[in-house]
Write a structure and sequence with these properties.
This protein is an alpha/beta fold and 311 residues long. It has 13 helices and 5 strands. The chain has a 5-stranded parallel beta sheet, with helices on both faces. The longest helix is centred in the middle third of the chain and has 18 residues.
Length: 311
């Protein structure tokens, strides 16, 4: 009998028939890596429990299998099946292995020790980044991307905040969006004015947050405050986002695994490029007119060199 699989797109995972043929053995994977590879083939109830495991993986060893099953509202037998699907013989074995994953949440979080190449390889990095892009974009339904782009295009104002490693990515998407629409505002985390910016959110606004692992604890409260103000919320994150993903109206997850001892954000950059492109297409003539006006003003006001057309 064919196993029932979820019809909804799994967070950060490709469809089951689109998984890479060269997937590595789960023996040397972190919990996150194991869940990533197994997710497309899990049932809905198993996926709910997998989400709970990701959310609580930092303190997972203190929970019993029954407690985790209760949190996900699934049966104990579902928990047992999931543990086996992830490549563990039993839950106690899984807890011992997770306890030994000392680097979760650090830049080495998605990396199994045996995955680390003996020498840095530009070819390996390129291949992994290409795979990250492919798996990230194939996992996100076109309808969800279109919904996110529509929220950006139609929002009264767009507020952007990049947290920690997402700060540069926030500036990246902010640069694109200011080229094609007005009322785009950058929010600064740690500048002492976050409450002022959140206090300015109102109905019809959109808060776009970019936050990857080691997310600030205030993130969920930030998203909830935005929604309380009537604003829509869009979160760009990775597979490990749990409570923050549930607090956001839309979550777009990116694969960040890398052969290097830190995460890679190549897939996130490509996702941002696609999102900005779709916003531009949705806004049509208005975006084109704004882009042209800014281009003219760059020549007059900004002290930059631009290529001159050949005679």
């Amino acid at each position: 009998m064919k196993k029932e699989t979820s019809q909804s797109s799994p967070p950060g995972s490709p469809a089951a028939d689109e998984r890479p043929e060269h997937s590595e053995s789960t023996g040397d994977q972190t919990l996150e890596g194991r869940i990533y590879r197994a997710y497309p083939e899990l049932t809905r109830s198993e996926q709910r429990l997998a989400d709970v495991l990701l959310e609580h993986q930092m303190d997972l060893p203190i929970y019993t299998a029954a407690e985790l099953a209760a949190r996900a509202n699934v049966s104990k037998s579902t928990a047992a099946r999931l543990i086996r699907a992830l490549g563990y013989r039993s839950y106690p074995e899984a807890k011992r292995a997770i306890r030994n994953e000392q680097f979760w949440g650090s830049p080495q979080g998605g990396l199994g020790r045996a995955e680390q190449p003996q020498e840095a390889s530009s070819k390996r990095m390129m291949e992994d980044d290409v795979e990250n892009i492919r798996l990230t974009l194939t996992a996100i339904p076109e309808a969800r991307m279109a919904e996110a782009a529509r929220d950006i295009a139609t929002a009264r104002r767009v507020w952007i905040i990049g947290l920690r490693s997402g700060q540069g990515l926030g500036l990246h998407i902010g640069h694109y969006l200011t080229l094609i629409r007005g009322d785009v505002h950058m929010m600064q985390f740690g500048a002492g004015s976050l409450s002022h910016d959140v206090g300015s959110l109102a109905e019809g606004d959109l808060l776009l947050v970019i936050a990857f692992r080691r997310r600030p604890k205030v993130l969920v409260e930030l998203l909830e405050a935005a929604r309380d103000a009537g604003a829509r919320t869009l979160l760009i994150s990775d597979l490990s986002a749990g409570a923050s993903a549930r607090a956001a109206d839309i979550t777009l997850r990116c694969r960040t695994q890398s052969p290097a001892p830190f995460n890679t954000f190549t897939a996130a950059v490509t996702l941002i490029n696609c999102l900005a492109w779709q916003v531009h297409a949705m806004m049509g003539d208005a975006a084109i007119a704004r882009y042209r006006r800014i281009d003219q003003l760059v020549r007059k006001l900004d002290d930059v060199s631009t290529p001159q057309p050949r005679e």
